[in-house]
Write a structure and sequence with these properties.
It is a single chain. It is built from 16 helices and 28 strands. By secondary structure, it is α/β, with parallel strands linked by helices. 51% of the residues are buried.
């Protein structure tokens, strides 16, 4: 017999493979995990390993909402290391991210791209804090820009409630413990796939394999174990409750009646519901109608709440496609039910994806800060002109759904919600089919056949100008907002085109 040649070492594309390095059969699984070269001791070590330099782009997700502690910890370390001129590509920013103000002032952060912004940071940017305007993108636009290379992420810093030593991570722990939970990591999945380097930050390293997982190990370069990644109270609470506000209930009932009259409430329909009080209440009234008709929805999409999970458990929804879990009930359902699927932002809403989920929607019920007589919608700036909201998936769902319903009150306090022209254009009126207030339903003139179906069903529609006149009669004509000529925000549409600009608020 001819003896095999060689010493047991095999040259290859990546250098010499040494057979003895693969012989770990005597080790336990735990011992093998401890040998993972991905696990680092600190954020600083991770920043050094990924080679972060001045002028690069880093990203974060917002699944920890106002309980997030990852962004501030990472940025503080980066500032201490003297790295400057960074672009932050965040899926959204919240009140808890006010410490970014100091990093903008000291030159660590030069640009921001995000879906939304709230709190002191948003207020300061509205008043001219940054030299360069913030780029606001919808969730679909963000995924589109990242996946097509329009935006290059150098390093993604992604918080995860659980990860194994090799980076298989999830938005919950597979153990029945008291660990942090955020549910779906849908907005982080895109960053993990396309960023040059990916760092998972967790306070809970679990044994390999952490399966099922939201993000797989092949996308992860390093794992950092931190003492804290967030405040559970700010991340999510128990089940999101239905509103008890009488005005919102009236709006929701009328919206449900209009949806039924549209003819789209049929066996196997699909839907997305916003997270506002009136939007969620629509779900309750649709459940009554589904029970009466003996029908069910093929899938529910988007940000998922406990109320949608209840419909799922009762058999009124067959599948849940979850890009963001809004409460603990939704997070637990994602963990327990195989027909409750977490999806990426690409899958959810990217216009580059022909099969994107929003394009399969029959019904989308969305809220608004204000809407105008041309059915344009603003969900980004408040009545005072300051940034205080987020585009989110609003544009995406409105564009994709066969029926887009905007629910909002005629006024909030002494502020009209139906105006002549929205202060910031976020969702074009061409993608909105009807607006429902407590005083009735206005159908977009583009949808004559929809108006006919509603009126045939006994729903008397109103002209949108009637709503505007009623609002002005109640609140009076307010003074115009005073701006400077400095642009502090650029609002993009889901395909990346610019549809509006936000100007700096003038000093009072």
């Amino acid at each position: 017999m001819m003896e095999k040649e060689g010493s047991g070492n095999y040259p290859g594309v990546y250098g010499e493979f040494r057979e003895e390095n693969a012989k770990k059969s005597s080790m336990t699984l735990k011992e093998r995990s401890l040998h993972s070269p991905k696990v680092l001791k600190s954020i600083r070590e991770a920043v050094e390993r990924v080679g972060l330099k001045d002028g690069m782009t880093i990203s974060f997700h917002h699944h920890f909402r106002n309980g997030d502690e990852v962004v501030n910890q990472v940025m503080d370390v980066i500032a201490e290391m003297g790295i400057k001129d960074l672009t932050i590509m965040a899926s959204s920013l919240n009140e808890v991210h006010a410490p970014l103000i100091k990093h903008i002032k000291n030159g660590v952060v030069r640009r921001i791209e995000t879906s939304g912004m709230r709190g002191e940071l948003a207020e300061e940017i509205s008043r001219g804090l940054m030299d360069q305007p913030v780029i606001f993108r919808s969730h679909g636009n963000r995924a589109y820009a990242i996946s097509t290379g329009q935006v290059k992420i150098d390093v993604a810093f992604l918080g995860a409630p659980s990860s194994d030593p090799f980076g298989n991570c999830n938005g919950y722990s597979r153990e029945d413990d008291n660990s942090i939970s955020c549910g779906s990591l849908g907005y982080a999945k895109c960053d993990a796939e396309f960023a040059d380097k990916v760092v998972i930050l967790t306070n809970n390293i679990v044994p390999y394999p952490n399966a099922p997982f939201a993000i797989a190990e092949e996308f992860v370069d390093y794992v950092v174990l931190l003492e804290r990644i967030g405040d559970p109270k700010g991340i999510m609470s128990g089940a999101t409750r239905y509103t008890k506000n009488p005005k919102e209930l009236v709006i929701a009932r009328q919206a449900a009646d209009a949806i039924e009259a549209s003819g789209l409430l049929r066996k196997g329909f699909s839907m997305q519901m916003g997270s506002g009080g009136a939007s969620l209440a629509v779900t309750r009234f649709l459940e009554e109608k589904m029970e009466e008709k003996g029908i069910w929805a093929s899938f529910a999409l988007g940000g998922i709440t406990g109320s949608m999970v209840e419909l799922f458990k009762k058999g009124y929804v067959r599948r849940i496609l979850d890009v963001q879990s809004f409460d603990l009930v939704a997070a637990q359902s994602l963990k327990e039910n195989r027909f409750h699927q977490q999806i990426s932002a690409q899958y959810y809403a990217s216009p580059a994806n022909e099969g994107t989920a929003v394009n399969q929607l029959d019904i989308a019920v969305l809220s608004a800060l204000e809407a105008d007589v041309d059915f344009n919608v603003n969900v980004l700036t408040g009545a005072d002109g300051a940034i205080r909201g987020a585009i989110g998936g609003h544009q995406d769902a409105a564009a994709g759904a066969a029926l887009t319903v905007i629910v909002c009150p005629l006024t909030r306090g002494r502020i009209p919600c139906i105006v002549d022209r929205v202060s910031t254009l976020v969702t074009p009126g061409s993608t909105v089919d009807m607006i429902v207030t407590e005083f009735g339903v206005a159908v977009n003139p583009r949808r004559k056949e929809l108006k006919e179906r509603l009126e045939k069903a006994g729903i008397k529609t109103k002209d949108i100008h009637e709503f505007r006149n009623m609002a002005v009669n109640y609140t009076g004509q307010g003074d115009p907002i005073a701006y400077t000529d400095k642009v502090v925000g650029i609002v993009t549409y889901r395909d990346g085109s610019v549809i509006d600009r936000i100007y700096q608020l003038a000093e009072e």
